[in-house]
Specification:
This protein is mainly alpha-helical. It has one domain. The longest helix is centred in the C-terminal third of the chain and has 20 residues. The protein is globular and about 25 Å long. The two termini are 13 Å apart.
Length: 49
């Protein structure tokens, strides 16, 4: 997960939202779709490394 620390600030915010999802913290309806979108972006970014 060290890759995530290289992201810009808005990506870090999405990362925090993703972490709250994976830890089972309560979230609003929009965050879940944003997190799934972020996961796909993160996978693409990780594969480019």
């Amino acid at each position: 997960m060290s890759i995530l620390y290289n992201f810009p600030t808005d990506k870090q915010i999405k990362t925090l939202r993703f972490i709250t999802l994976t830890t089972g913290v309560l979230f609003d309806g929009n965050t879940k779709s944003e997190a799934s979108k972020f996961i796909k972006e993160n996978l693409k970014y990780a594969q480019e490394m």
